[in-house]
Every structure is written in structure tokens, then in C-alpha cells.
Write a structure and sequence with these properties.
Order of helices and strands: HEHHEHEHEEHEEEHHHEEHEEH
CATH superfamily of the largest domain: Type I PLP-dependent aspartate aminotransferase-like (Major domain)
Number of domains: 2
Modified residues (N6-(pyridoxal phosphate)lysine): 210
Helix content: 25-40%
Protein name: Histidinol-phosphate aminotransferase
CATH topology of the largest domain: Aspartate Aminotransferase, domain 2
Bound molecules: 4'-deoxy-4'-aminopyridoxal-5'-phosphate
CATH class of the largest domain: Alpha Beta
Pathway: Amino-acid biosynthesis; L-histidine biosynthesis; L-histidine from 5-phospho-alpha-D-ribose 1-diphosphate: step 7/9
Strand order of the largest sheet: 2-8-7-6-5-3-4
Family: Belongs to the class-II pyridoxal-phosphate-dependent aminotransferase family. Histidinol-phosphate aminotransferase subfamily.
Subunit structure: Homodimer.
Largest sheet: 7 strands, mixed
CATH architecture of the largest domain: 3-Layer(aba) Sandwich
């Protein structure tokens, strides 16, 4: 490779996505997808869309999808932006809204995409340290912040902050954009969507990839006042990004309307989380209380990297981050009831 290209390529520390193994007989607890399939109604809606006019481009404004999301939250459609997964929307937000002359502030342990987006966009970052129990204190955000982003609940730790603290931050920094990344909000955290009407500086980002079991379709959305969404729109149009495709829109609309299926699976996942939490504690793990569809845990006597490998030998994959402060933790996605049982049985064997 020429010196020029190696400098360009090596100057960036890229995001390392969770593994998507080719083997199908693994218990996959590493990337926080839903363990349950989309409901039959959702699959039917996607199938029905294949008999529609796939010859034609999708609606550039995702009108029907944005309307379904607006109806779900009881807000106006012009407060909703739709994109190809929440990662795409976060990328737009970094370019359009978070590139301020002050530093972008986010927790020191958080979604590992944020530092990559900062690097790509030449944004200076400043971290706020999570407390020892991994909780996030928003009063620690400095007044000189240029903008703020954090997941709620945080990833990979699973802890949430209250709406009251988010509202306080929005009031304290009224001319700074605050992005709340709610990828895991449906597993026990209150959404900040109702705060948007009083806080024009707040952008809430959600996804269909977790609680709505559609990671394979790549659909996410943002809720904010129209002035803020116009910034996302400008970036989307400048890069000629694709609107959400016809099949993905059909699936996402049906998923948004399927409130019973959503509620049923969400409750099952939260019940399994409580069970996994309890069982891991019995096995001697310290488990961080989680509001997400994963748990974050460490065993005081066993190396986390070795535990991850031992689980892998038993066809179970979990996530181990080789990062400061958390290299002795495992992040384990909540699977089906049977997968959770298999996980605990495997750990019993490994720890015996
Ligand atoms: N935010 C957080 C905190 C995440 O963990 C993820 C999933 N890796 C995303 C956003 C992106 O999700 P998606 O692009 O599938 O909507």
C-alpha cells in the first residue's frame, strides 16, 4: 500500500462490530438482537410488500413509516425522521448537529461508535467518567460542552438516567444539542420523547433492531423538533443517502402497530433478564443492574477473556471488550429461555 493510503487508513481506529458467525448452531448472545422472531403479522406485511411495485424507488420522505411512528408516540409526523438503522441517523447527527466548536461530551464507557464518529468528523471529544457503580451523572457534564450524546440506558453497562436529569441538562445547556440514544429504552427505561416538545435542543434516537426484532431490516428513527430534524435532512440529501426501502418500511410499520407482540416479547426478555441476573449472582458474578436486553457482569476470581473463550468452546458467544475499566466484564445478551438456561449450565461447568 502506498504511504499516502496507509496513512489515511491507519489514521482511523475503526469500530469493531460484534461478530456475526457463519455457523448457525451457536447460541449467539453477543450483539443484543432480539431472541424472538418478528411476529407473523410483520412477516406477512413484508411478504405483501413484495407484491407491490418494487420496480419503483421508495418514498424519499418515508411518509407512511414516519406517520406510524408519530401515531405510536402521539406526536406530529414532522417531529419524526427515519433512516437505515439508528447508526445512520447517529452518523448524520454527528455531521449536522454535534460538530460544534466546543467539545462533544459523552461518557468514558459507552457505545464504541461515538469515538469513531468523532474521529471521522474531526470532532473534539471530552469524557465524563462513569461512577464506580457505572451510573452516569449528567450534572458532571461541563458548562463548556459544545454538545452532548449518551445512550439511555448506557451501553455496554445497561444503567439509565432519569427523565428529570435529562430535562435539567436540556435546560442548563439550552443552545447545545443533546442526543439521547435510546437503542435499549424499551427494556425498562422511560423514553425522553415527551420532553421533545419543551426542549428544541433534544434529539431522541431509537431503533427497530432490538425490542422490535428487525435488526436485519436496518430501520431507525429520530424524534426532535423540525428545526433539528432539518439538519439531519440536509446531511441525508447532501450524501444522497437512500430512504428506508419498501420492504423495510412495510415491516417496520407493521412492527410499530403490533403493540401486543411487542409488549409480550419485551416482558419475556425482562423476565429472563431477572432470572439470568439471579443465576449469575448465585455463581459468584457481580452483575450491574441492567435496564437493557443484556447484562454486564464480572467474576471476581476468573479472567473475563478466558470465560468468553470457555463459553465459545461450548458454542455460546458473548461480548468481551478489551477496554480500560471493563476488560474483566462480559456483556451477555438475553436470549430465549432455553438459551439463558444453556448459558447458566455452561458457566456452572466452567466454574466448577
Ligand atoms: N446505539 C447503541 C447504543 C447501540 O448499541 C446500537 C447497536 N449496536 C446502535 C445504536 C445501532 O443500532 P442500529 O443501527 O441497528 O439501529
Amino acid at each position: 500500500m502506498s504511504r499516502f493510503w496507509s496513512k489515511v487508513v491507519h489514521g482511523l481506529t475503526p469500530y469493531t462490530p460484534g461478530e456475526q458467525p457463519k455457523l448457525t448452531n451457536l447460541i449467539k448472545l453477543n450483539t443484543n438482537e432480539s431472541p424472538y422472531p418478528p411476529s407473523p403479522g410483520v412477516l406477512e406485511a413484508i411478504r405483501a410488500a413484495t407484491t407491490g411495485d418494487l420496480r419503483l424507488y421508495p418514498d424519499p420522505d418515508s411518509t407512511a413509516l414516519r406517520q406510524a411512528i408519530a401515531d405510536y408516540f402521539g406526536i406530529a409526523r414532522d417531529h419524526v425522521f427515519a433512516g437505515n438503522g439508528s447508526d445512520e441517523i447517529l452518523a448524520f447527527a454527528f455531521q449536522a448537529l454535534l460538530n460544534h466548536e466546543g467539545p462533544l461530551v459523552y461518557p468514558d464507557i459507552t457505545y464504541s461508535f461515538y469515538p469513531v464518529y468523532c474521529q471521522l468528523n474531526g470532532i473534539r471529544a471530552e469524557h465524563i467518567a462513569l461512577n464506580d457503580d457505572f451510573s452516569l451523572d449528567l450534572t458532571a457534564v461541563p458548562d463548556h460542552a459544545g454538545a452532548v450524546i449518551f445512550p439511555n440506558p448506557n451501553a455496554p453497562t445497561g444503567q439509565s438516567v432519569s427523565l428529570e436529569h435529562i430535562a435539567q441538562l436540556c435546560r442548563r445547556l439550552p443552545d447545545r444539542v443533546i442526543v439521547v440514544d435510546e437503542a435499549y429504552v424499551d427494556f425498562g427505561t422511560e423514553t425522553a420523547v415527551p420532553l421533545v416538545k419543551d426542549h428544541p435542543n433534544l434529539l431522541v434516537v431509537q431503533t427497530f433492531s432490538k425490542s422490535r426484532a428487525l435488526a436485519g431490516l436496518r430501520v431507525g428513527f429520530a424524534i426532535g423538533q423540525p428545526e433539528l430534524l432539518a439538519g439531519l435532512e440536509r446531511i441525508k440529501n447532501s450524501f444522497n443517502s437512500y430512504p428506508v426501502d419498501r420492504l423495510a418500511s412495510a415491516g417496520a410499520i407493521a412492527a410499530m402497530e403490533d403493540r401486543a407482540g411487542f409488549e409480550h416479547d419485551r416482558q419475556r426478555i425482562m423476565a429472563s433478564r431477572a432470572w439470568v441476573n439471579e443465576q449469575l449472582t448465585v455463581l459468584g458474578f457481580n452483575v450491574v443492574p441492567s435496564q437493557a436486553n443484556f447484562v454486564f457482569a464480572r467474576h471476581p476470581q476468573r479472567d473475563a477473556g478466558e470465560l468468553a473463550l470457555a463459553l465459545r468452546d461450548r458454542a455460546i458467544i458473548v461480548r468481551h471488550f478489551r477496554l480500560l475499566r471493563i476488560d474483566q466484564h462480559l456483556r451477555i445478551t438475553i436470549g430465549t429461555e432455553a438459551e439463558c438456561k444453556a448459558l447458566i449450565e455452561a458457566l456452572k461447568e466452567i466454574l466448577a
